[in-house]
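Please fill in the sequence for the structure shown.

STRUCTURE ENCODING:
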């Protein structure tokens, strides 16, 4: 689910450089980052877009080697969920969060980090994870997992929120970005078009879920089969988490309240559906 792996970016040209998303704790990845520095360059700052281990895992070892300062947004806390949701959350998604990661400094929304060769601005974009940030360098935006060119983002509870994710996409729209640089997969050279595609996709999925629920009661696996009929089966467990996030968002917006009584007994098979 990470395409070819994590894209780590080195910002700067001579002197102090910043690294965005150092990546997983992998010695080859570590060595590649240090080897990419030109003579006279050093890493002064390490910025993590969100606390998933494929983004933050290398932060401490790299900071120890370079004496760089670690930056991230404030630690995410799980959102309050309806009682019928909690038994069906995936423990693996909880384990993917780097709960041991503590930055040296907390970034604020809109905060600018200024060096002699670069200026980065933080944009809080919760959704994929509550602490997710994007980072802008002029009209280039490093989008982490919020916007990717090859895939939509996974929104899984309780540290994620579908409504916040869509609001974050809308917030990025119309800002004149020239390039999106995601943490996985290729660059996105048509940012505005990609935002429109992702918003349209999520709104269509919401409509699709409501239509499926209006026909008859379903188990979660049935909703996945109906709504993700063209998606490879190995992605169905991830798709189930996105549907669950949509259902909670719809419940918050009072769009399917008449279905709530059937959810605990009919909609879900139980925790064994999830890995």
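FILLED IN BY: designer on duty
SEQUENCE:
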């Amino acid at each position: 689910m990470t395409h070819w792996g994590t894209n780590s970016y080195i910002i700067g040209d001579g002197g102090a450089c910043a690294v965005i998303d150092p990546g997983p704790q992998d010695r080859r990845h570590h060595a590649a980052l240090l080897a990419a520095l030109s003579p006279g360059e050093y890493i002064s700052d390490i910025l993590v877009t969100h606390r998933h281990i494929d983004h933050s895992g290398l932060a401490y070892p790299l900071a120890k080697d370079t004496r760089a300062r670690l930056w991230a947004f404030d630690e995410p806390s799980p959102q309050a969920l309806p009682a019928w949701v909690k038994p069906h959350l995936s423990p693996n998604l909880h384990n993917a969060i780097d709960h041991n990661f503590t930055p040296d400094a907390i970034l604020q929304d809109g905060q600018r980090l200024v060096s002699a060769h670069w200026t980065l601005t933080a944009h809080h974009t919760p959704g994929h994870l509550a602490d997710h940030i994007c980072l802008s360098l002029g009209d280039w935006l490093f989008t982490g997992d919020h916007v990717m060119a090859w895939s939509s983002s996974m929104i899984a509870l309780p540290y994620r929120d579908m409504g916040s994710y869509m609001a974050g996409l809308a917030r990025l729209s119309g800002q004149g970005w020239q390039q999106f640089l995601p943490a996985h997969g290729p660059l996105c050279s048509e940012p505005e078009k990609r935002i429109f595609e992702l918003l349209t996709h999520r709104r269509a999925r919401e409509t699709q879920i409501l239509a499926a629920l209006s026909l008859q009661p379903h188990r979660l696996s049935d909703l996945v089969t109906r709504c993700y009929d063209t998606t490879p089966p190995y992605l169905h467990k991830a798709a189930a988490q996105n549907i669950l996030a949509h259902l909670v968002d719809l419940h918050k917006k009072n769009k399917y309240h008449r279905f709530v009584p059937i959810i605990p007994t009919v909609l879900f098979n139980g925790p064994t559906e999830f890995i």
